[in-house]
Write a structure and sequence with these properties.
alpha/beta, 10 helices, 6 strands, 50% helix, 13% strand, globular
Length: 223
């Protein structure tokens, strides 16, 4: 599985290259700015990409701009954002893309190699992988029907957005699959979304809903 990385921190970039190589990935290119990333994507046609938000020259949002441009040029290009920051406006645009293949993890919160590589493979396969703190910040700005969700329903919504299926949600919340099914039905009912969506389509439906409302309802999922 070929990977292109956009990361200006030399030590982190080298560490990612070694880590991914040991896990069966092929790092096709490492770049330290947006234009280099776009060129590498065009040249190497990677299966998945890893992008930092803040890249030279201004260290503001060049990385996520480049990710959006790459997704526009190559629809559905799998992108895993790996950053110290949540850039809310552009993160909302990226994560609300209904084509899937999107992830957003915070560097300081990645604690297990297995979790990281699993998230990368999930994104490469067209799924989603989102840190709960990213979800919390994207769901934390202004009033919306998400306010109507119970705390448990917000927990379920957060886990759905991370890409977990019903069984995974049930295991993390220590409830039955049937209880999760009922919570999900209630979430979609309150958000005006179809309860028939399943798997990552459910996540994309929620993210599309967020995009239509600016990407920033108020309630944050629990842990």
């Amino acid at each position: 599985m070929r990977v292109v990385i956009a990361e200006d921190n030399v030590l982190l970039a080298s560490g990612l290259e070694l880590l991914l190589g040991s896990q069966g990935f092929e790092v096709a290119a490492i770049t330290d700015d947006g234009p280099g990333f776009l060129a590498a994507v065009e040249t190497h046609r990677p299966d998945v990409t890893i992008v930092d938000v803040r890249l030279p020259p201004t260290f503001r949002d060049e990385g996520i701009h480049a990710a959006l441009r790459a997704r526009r040029d190559r629809p559905g290009l799998p992108v895993l954002v790996l950053s110290q920051y949540v850039e809310q406006e552009y993160a909302g645009r990226l994560l609300s893309d209904t084509r899937g293949g999107i992830g957003y993890l915070l560097k300081d919160r990645v604690s297990r190699i297995e979790d990281f590589t699993e998230a990368l493979r999930r994104v490469a396969a067209g799924g989603t992988a989102m840190d709960p703190e990213v979800i919390a910040q994207l769901l934390a700005a202004r009033g919306d029907p998400v306010d109507a969700l119970t705390p448990r329903e917000r927990e379920v919504l957060g886990l759905m957005a991370e890409g977990h299926d019903n069984t995974g949600i049930a295991q993390r919340l220590f409830v039955t699959d049937n209880a999760v099914h009922k919570h999900i039905g209630s979430v979609f009912l309150k958000l005006g979304l179809s309860a028939g969506d399943s798997g990552h389509r459910r996540v994309r439906a929620v993210l599309a809903y967020l995009r239509r409302h600016g990407g920033t309802p108020t309630s944050a999922p629990g842990r």
